[in-house]
Sequence to fold (316 residues):
Amino acid sequence: MSDSYNQPLGGNEMPRFAGPGTFMRLPSAADAQGLDAALIGIPMDIGASWRSGTRFGPKQIRAESTMLRPYNMWTKAAPFAHMQVADIGDVPVNTFDLKDTVKRITDFYDEVLKHDVVPVTMGGDHTLSLPVLRSIAKKHGPVALIHVDAHADINDHMFGNEIAHGTPFRRAYEEGLIDAANTFQIGLRGTGYEADDFDTGRSWGFTVIQAEEVWYKSLAPVMDKVREQVKKRPVYLTFDIDSLDPSVAPGTGTPEFGGLTASQGFEIVRGCAGLNIVGCDLVEVSPPYDPSGNTAVMAANLLYEMLCVLPKAQAR
Fold:
């Protein structure tokens, strides 16, 4: 391990309830220069259609991340031994204007991606994936997409608006930001407006794996197939916390029962090891509906697992 790499502040150096308010109490940075991975918060919920509160998600995820330690005791990944990682703070969203917020996010990520860095985003409602993908596609072209969610998020409009948390992947498909033949939606479930709601993505070329297909099953075989198909294409991973069953993650705006288990969530992220991940996000944590803090704890763990599977963390 190089002494030049940033390290999380450990619980034996400073009590976990104290110290900096960054992710895992990592050093903060003003920008992404010199970083291999940058933690970024997008504290927004003005794209949400039901329960609000995800504007508080990044702050709560950071607070609960203090329990995390630097070494992954199962995969043996040690991201802070091989990458320079820092928390570069939050996008300055306009909490009164969704369209302006979307533009601000893209502008922010355009600056971040001037550097050779992987942005790791804490949300915030799922609207944010669209403006992030707009920046990602400028640098990497259309990306393979691993989309873990209870919902397809391919609505054409919501209350007449083309951009909201239920529309990002229709817009991303229409704008050519994602590679439809290498887009995987995992965990979709619940009720719909039409019997073929989940088939629209299939008609575009998406692989759609509904939650019921993987009840009581390991998702490792699914991720084996994803890796075999995607190969070395650039990949964006977006993980909506409502993909997990509300018994695991109740603190979210649009909960759907019958969802993925915690271990299945880990299997998906760990199954991304070896892929060329160029960006990832964890969205829809709503602390007002998370009195135990467990949803944010789970989110922090998943974000740590994302750091563990980034290409530079694997190249050792």
Observations:
- The beta strands are 37-42, 85-90, 118-123, 143-148, 178-188, 207-210, 234-240, 276-283.
- The radius of gyration is 18 Å.
- The chain has one domain: 23-314.
